[in-house]
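Progress narrative, Year 2. Work on Schlafen AlbA-2 domain-containing protein from Methanorbis furvi advanced from sequence curation to structure prediction during this period.
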Amino acid sequence: MLTEKLEKEVVAFLNYKEGGYLYIGIADDGTVCGISDPDATQLTIINRIKDNISPSTLGLFDIETYHHDEKAYLKITISSGPEKPYYLTRYGMSPRGCYLRVGAGIQQMSQQKIDEYYAKRTHNTLGLMVSPIQTLSFAQLKIYYEEKGYTINDTFLRNLGLINRDGEYNYAAYLLADTNGVSLKVARYFGSDKIDLIENEELGYCSLVKATTQMLDKLELINITRTKITGKERIEKRLVDSRALREAVINAIVHNDYSRGTAPTVEIFSDRIMITSAGGLPQNLTEEEFFAGISAPRNQELMRIFRDLNLVEQLGSGLRRILAKYDRSIFVFSPNYLRVTFRYDEPQDETINETINETINETINETINETINETINETINETINESLHNESTLEKLVLDYLKKNPKATYADIARETTLSRSTVARLIQMLQKNGSIIRVGSNKTGHWQIIP
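Result:
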């Protein structure tokens, strides 16, 4: 059912001001012919559109399966693209590669029309790209903002530029949501090449802010301190300057071209750490302009949020910190990626991985022990509390606190009563069941009302 015209039809709708729909499994006269394997057909369509059309069509189309008389067919919804002209990759931005919808058919675009579209092209920003999922939550992002003292209100997401003019979540929102399909990659190799992979980890599928902090914590463990004794002098030095490494990682994450469907990667070798982000220099910036500190953020929404959360400071400051410790040669530019390579200050033998593993294991063990101790202490305190108070006394304890603090959260109650949150939740449920209290308003802005 899929013909060679599929990509041409999609390109024509991408270049059309209103977008459009394509149906697979329905004949020209409207008869439902059906398709035998809709899932496989859908995957084929996704790959063909992604691989054969430029610029990136990420977030610009959707495919749904429908059934009629026990026959399956597909509906492809295609948005009008923000980076016109779209074209068949193999033919480039030429009349042979560019098509436009005219009435019920398609036709090749003239070179003059192509040039007009290109002159008006809008950069494929995260703000213009629509999120592939519109049912998003942002609890993680809100926690980070609240920790910095920001007030969260009903316009929070719109103020951050995460909602477009049509009221839809954009791709920046997708990256910052509690769950998404994006992960930062960390690979660690035994030697100085990619032959022996000893660790391959993905950090993400959560808010990009959370994934960033996970990445920074991971590299803090890996960037161990080496000691060198020369005569009477004892020198302690990290494998890589920690501030420069941090800035390079954050720059890679903030300036990555997510429209390519690729997230930044960090690779650790026995002699270097290599950070690669998708996309070359943004907005036609030259290398000299880049090193001169001229700022041209690719992803303004991410830059704004990372600045709010003190992950980045002023524009261009990260590069200055890197160049204060390393020369320009650590940067490699290409149209498709930007790579920063930090070589260790002194050559290391391959046993460095053993030291890194020991450091990571020690940290993991300390964390596990702390968690066990906290759990034991909480259990002991809980047992003591419940032995001193019967159930009705505990209910009264919570009730008395709510009378004075009707907007208290579970965490507030637990802290003031020294009960665990699970016990507080159980007692609140019992108080609601017996009609002593009711919840008025939402969980975020509401309060507890005591029933006389």
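The chain has a mean pLDDT of 83. Residues 352-388 form the longest helix (37 residues).
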